[in-house]
């Protein structure tokens, strides 16, 4: 490792060559303000807030995009720089609405925070608002371009990290604005509703469609039996909204909080994840050992990924597992199996889901397969952020709640269900059960480290009783192409597929960093949330889906067996090619 020595505000610091001034300053606890920079993205110096001086020079540089050099002497803060930054800030505010109280990012807005830090109390520049229309065309996210500060983060995420290209810059100079591709509405663009644009936006220009009122209205309706399910990754992230460290497991407090909101039955999507593994794992074993379908099999739990696949890889539809996502399986079981057990009709049950993902709002009405109970299987989806706001507004002292259990008969889960929240988790959970289905024996070491971690693409070979199963895991949509292109190339050459099983998650890190999770997610935060998920897995008495006693009873009393005709009707889906042409 090559080190560079420089001075920052007179203090000597040594950092690795190539480090930016911004990050070098952080090494000595000096914070340089910025609005366009995000640790996930390549710096591109759009906002102008991070300018610093080179000592004994009239030159200023932008700290986020300037690498350090040997012998540099940098001044990061002085009265002149303070004045310049405040002017930049005031110019940004001159084109930004004063709607903080009604903005979804109130108290979580980076522009608001910096304005507070700089003591902005008046606006010296004339307001120049453009009265741009709000785009509510998708069921998942809202685009409010009037609040855009042209930082470009959403474009960099959508085009770079996600390779979706649903957002772009239009026009130049004062007329520059962010808009859906082709200046169309967002729902008619290539958007896959992943919400990474909203997760990275520093202000309230892009945010999740808030549906907390729907849940509250259902709770108020005495004719409805209200149930809720909680996704794996919510339990290691929602605590951040209450001051806890990322990765803190708060499962029991979540259950307790939901009951205090007035929920009649609290279930866990981890049960649905175990059910998904029984179906998807059986499907994989049938493809692998009986030739009952093409290989590689590709996971289908992520609705943003299935949307992307239908648009950009429709030729891969035969490879897709037909298994629904855990959320949709849980919803179907809530309105059929649970309803039958409790003596309800499906229409009497209101089924809500707490998810880390904005695309889940879209998934619940994606096609007719999401109505397998005869009515809509899941009625509403709230993101982690929405639930945190609802808990706070309901006067619930979250941190001091006692831990409570989930309700039965569809609330128990295995550790395999928990790890669905991490990239590689679906793969690992499936292989734990597939090993048993093929060999009839228990896997001695259930932790499959080859598929863990934050590498964008992870590959491995798993030995199942002498059969070498080649697997790949991709997360962050921009990484998917490299994996699927290998599959296409092998098919074109008439060769065996390079993999037997592929897992894809749209968001970097998987669901733990979904578009509906708490703001300010970085790789450091992702890592802590992932560790929390694996901790929950290790704490579980049962760590394989097929060992979940409530899953065993479900098949014995209701479904029959995995991949049965009843399972197909309730737990499986189909896909439709919807190819788009890149702009």
Give a nutshell description of this structure.
This protein has 583 residues and is an alpha/beta fold. Helices cover 33% and strands 14% of the residues. It folds into three domains: 3-77, Ubiquitin-like (UB roll); 123-208, Alpha-Beta Plaits (2-Layer Sandwich); 213-571, Rossmann fold, CATH 3.40.50.1780.
Structural descriptors:
583 residues, four-stranded parallel β-sheet, Rossmann fold, five-stranded mixed β-sheet, 17 strands, 3 domains, globular, 18 helices, 33% helix, Ubiquitin-like (UB roll), alpha/beta, Alpha-Beta Plaits
Explain how this protein is built.
By secondary structure, the protein is of the alpha/beta class. It folds into 3 domains: 3-77, Ubiquitin-like (UB roll); 123-208, Alpha-Beta Plaits (2-Layer Sandwich), CATH 3.30.70.20; 213-571, Rossmann fold (3-Layer(aba) Sandwich), CATH 3.40.50. It has 18 helices and 17 strands. The protein has helices at residues 21-27, 79-93, 110-117, 153-161, 196-200, 212-220, 251-261, 269-290, 303-312, 326-342, 359-363, 384-393, 415-418, 425-439, 480-492, 523-539, 549-559, 565-571; strands at residues 3-8, 11-16, 51-54, 60-62, 73-75, 141-143, 167-170, 177-180, 206-208, 225-230, 265-268, 297-298, 349-355, 380-383, 457-464, 467-475, 501-505. The strands form 5 sheets. The chain has a 5-stranded mixed β-sheet with strand order 2-1-5-3-4, with helices on one face. A 4-stranded parallel β-sheet has the order 11-10-13-14, sandwiched between helices. A 4-stranded mixed β-sheet has the order 12-17-16-15, covered by helices on one side. Strand 15 (457-464) and strand 16 (467-475) form a beta hairpin. Helix 8 (269-290) crosses helix 10 and helix 8 (269-290) packs across helix 14. The longest helix has 22 residues, at 269-290. The two termini are 41 Å apart. The mean pLDDT is 95.
């Amino acid at each position: 490792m090559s080190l560079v020595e420089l001075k920052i505000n007179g203090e000597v610091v040594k950092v690795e060559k190539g480090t930016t001034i911004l990050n070098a300053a952080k090494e000595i606890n000096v914070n340089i303000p910025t609005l366009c920079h995000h640790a996930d993205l390549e710096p591109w110096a759009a906002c102008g807030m991070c300018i610093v001086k080179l000592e004994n020079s009239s030159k200023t540089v932008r700290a986020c995009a300037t690498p350090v050099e040997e012998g540099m002497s940098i001044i990061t803060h002085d009265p002149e720089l303070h004045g310049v930054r405040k002017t930049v800030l005031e110019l940004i505010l001159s084109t930004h609405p004063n709607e903080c109280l009604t903005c979804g990012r109130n108290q979580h807005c980076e522009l608001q925070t910096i304005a507070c830090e700089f003591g902005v109390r008046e606006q010296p520049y004339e307001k120049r608002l453009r009265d741009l229309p709000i785009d509510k065309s998708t069921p998942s996210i809202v685009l409010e371009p009037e609040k855009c500060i042209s930082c470009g983060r959403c474009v960099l995420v959508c085009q770079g990290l996600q390779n979706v290209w649903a957002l772009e810059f239009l026009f130049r100079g004062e007329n520059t604005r962010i808009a859906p591709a082709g200046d169309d509405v967002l729902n008619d663009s290539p958007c896959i509703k992943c919400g990474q644009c909203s997760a990275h936006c520093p202000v309230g220009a892009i945010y999740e469609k808030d549906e907390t009122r729907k849940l509250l209205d259902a709770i108020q309706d005495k004719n409805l039996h209200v149930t809720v399910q909680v996704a794996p990754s919510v339990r290691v992230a929602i605590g951040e909204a209450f001051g806890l460290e990322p990765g803190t497991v708060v499962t029991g407090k979540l259950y307790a909080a939901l009951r205090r909101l007035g929920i009649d039955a609290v279930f866990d999507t981890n049960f649905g994840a175990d059910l998904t593994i029984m179906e998807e794992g059986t499907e994989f074993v049938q493809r692998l050992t009986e030739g009952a379908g093409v290989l590689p099999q590709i996971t289908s739990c992520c609705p943003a990924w299935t949307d992307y696949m239908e648009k950009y890889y429709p030729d891969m539809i035969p490879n897709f597992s037909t298994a629904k996502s855990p959320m949709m399986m849980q919803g179907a079981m809530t309105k059929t199996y649970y309803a039958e057990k409790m003596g309800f009709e499906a229409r009497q049950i209101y089924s809500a889901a707490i998810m880390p993902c904005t695309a889940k709002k879209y998934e619940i009405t994606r096609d007719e397969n999401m109505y397998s109970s005869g009515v809509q299987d899941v009625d509403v989806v709230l993101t982690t952020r929405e639930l945190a706001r609802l808990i706070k507004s309901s006067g619930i002292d979250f941190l001091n709640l006692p831990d409570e259990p989930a309700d039965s008969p569809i609330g128990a889960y295995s550790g395999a269900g928990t790890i669905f929240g991490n990239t590689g988790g679906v793969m690992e959970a499936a292989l734990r059960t597939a090993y048993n289905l093929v060999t009839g024996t228990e896997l001695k070491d259930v932790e499959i480290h080859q598929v863990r971690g934050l590498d964008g693409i992870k590959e491995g070979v798993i030995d199942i009783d002498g059969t070498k199963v080649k697997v790949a895991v991709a997360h962050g949509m921009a990484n998917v192409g490299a994996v699927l292109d290998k599959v296409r190339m092998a098919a074109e050459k008439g060769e065996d597929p390079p993999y037997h099983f592929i897992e894809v998650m749209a968001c970097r890190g998987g669901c733990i960093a979904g578009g509906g999770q708490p703001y300010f997610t970085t790789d450091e935060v992702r890592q802590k949330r992932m560790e929390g998920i694996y901790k929950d897995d290790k704490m579980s008495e049962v760590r394989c889906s097929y060992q979940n006693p409530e899953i065993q009873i479900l098949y014995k009393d209701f479904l029959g067996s995995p991949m049965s005709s009843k399972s197909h009707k309730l737990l499986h889906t189909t896909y439709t090619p919807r190819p788009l042409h890149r702009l």
